[in-house]
């Protein structure tokens, strides 16, 4: 796939030297049947050709394995699908916290618009933008910020289709599955390979949505699969089996957010009822999620985490308030 890039200079990371943090093990494989250095070799990058942070040696002198460097803010954050909706709100919140953000989109027009807005508000040194996917996106991330602490897989699509499954076209199904399932897997693969080669390690957050989605069932099915993929990759599963101990995959659940995708399908009476009760704006959701995301590397935690904005208790309390007191009636859409 052809790629287009529009980038702004990110603040350069301090380096301790060009040496890599890990020597590649002999006859090792990152994943079964694949070269350990697959991610680098496929791009023609010699080992150590990129700037690296030098890992601190373990107590006891030379010969021991390197110790993971502690993460410290400002963090380098990459967010897919971040030119609008919850992705854009997350990006702005990270920037407000002083972090550096790489914003991604398939639309060059949206990238240019977002670039102009963020340059004015936060300055060029904190922002990188790219119209890229998967491998090319990783190359961009290596070349600009040189490492990524937090990678958020937010991009998703319902193919702009609000039809029952039996009426959904092959093309729409292919787009939904390609973006939400295959795209997520490819991004996770590339992020893991990139972060495995970082002395700081890294954190990957996959955004899921476990709610049933009538009128776009394929979308709901693909988003539900995110939970299973994340569990399969987490520390005590596939990553640990392959001795990837410095990369952690987390789940991130924003709940119902008043994005274009949600609101354009708010035509049925039942949909309007639940949107008014349970949904929140992207800014409100980001205000909650970003501090909780940043807390994980700040505490040097390497445990998988499930961060939920709309918990079961919050949902039930809102439903009760609506039934008992009429709370949030017509909050976002007119129900009458």
From TrEMBL:
Gene Ontology biological process terms from the UniProt entry: chlorophyll catabolic process; PSII associated light-harvesting complex II catabolic process
Family membership: Belongs to the short-chain dehydrogenases/reductases (SDR) family.
Pfam families (UniProt xref): adh_short
Stated name of the protein: chlorophyll(ide) b reductase
Record EC number: 1.1.1.294
Keyword terms of this UniProt record: Chlorophyll catabolism, Chloroplast, Membrane, NAD, Oxidoreductase, Plastid, Thylakoid, Transit peptide
GO cellular component terms attached to this protein's record: chloroplast thylakoid membrane
Top-rank lineage group of the source organism: Eukaryota
């Amino acid at each position: 796939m052809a790629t287009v890039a529009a980038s702004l200079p990110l603040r350069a990371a301090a380096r301790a030297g060009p040496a890599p943090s890990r020597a590649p093990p002999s006859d090792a494989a990152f994943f079964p049947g694949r070269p350990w250095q697959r991610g680098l070799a496929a791009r023609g990058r010699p080992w150590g050709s990129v700037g690296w942070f030098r890992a601190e040696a373990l107590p006891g002198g030379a010969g021991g394995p390197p110790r993971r460097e502690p993460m410290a803010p400002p963090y380098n954050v990459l967010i897919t699908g971040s030119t609008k909706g919850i992705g854009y709100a997350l990006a702005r919140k990270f920037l407000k916290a002083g972090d550096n953000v790489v914003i991604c989109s398939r639309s060059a027009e949206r990238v240019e618009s977002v670039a102009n807005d963020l340059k004015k508000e936060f300055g060029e040194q904190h922002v990188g933008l790219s119209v890229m996917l998967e491998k090319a996106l990783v190359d961009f991330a290596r070349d600009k910020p040189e490492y990524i602490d937090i990678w958020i897989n937010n991009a998703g699509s319902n193919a702009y289709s609000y039809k029952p499954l039996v009426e959904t076209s092959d093309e729409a199904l292919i787009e939904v599955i390609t973006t939400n399932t295959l795209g997520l897997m490819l991004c996770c693969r590339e992020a893991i390979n990139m972060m495995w080669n970082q002395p700081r390690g890294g954190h990957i957050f996959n955004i899921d949505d476990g709610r049933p989605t009538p009128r776009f069932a394929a979308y709901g099915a693909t988003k539900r699969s995110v939970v299973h993929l994340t569990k399969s990759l987490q520390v005590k599963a596939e990553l640990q089996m392959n001795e990837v101990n410095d990369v952690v995959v987390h789940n991130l659940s924003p709940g119902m957010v008043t994005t274009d995708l949600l609101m354009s399908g708010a035509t049925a009476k039942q949909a309007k009822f639940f949107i008014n009760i349970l949904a929140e704006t992207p800014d409100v959701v980001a205000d909650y999620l970003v501090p909780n995301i940043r807390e994980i590397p700040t505490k040097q935690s390497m445990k998988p985490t499930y961060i939920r904005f709309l918990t079961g208790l919050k949902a039930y309390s809102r439903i009760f308030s609506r039934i008992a007191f009429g709370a949030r009636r017509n909050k976002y859409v007119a129900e009458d």
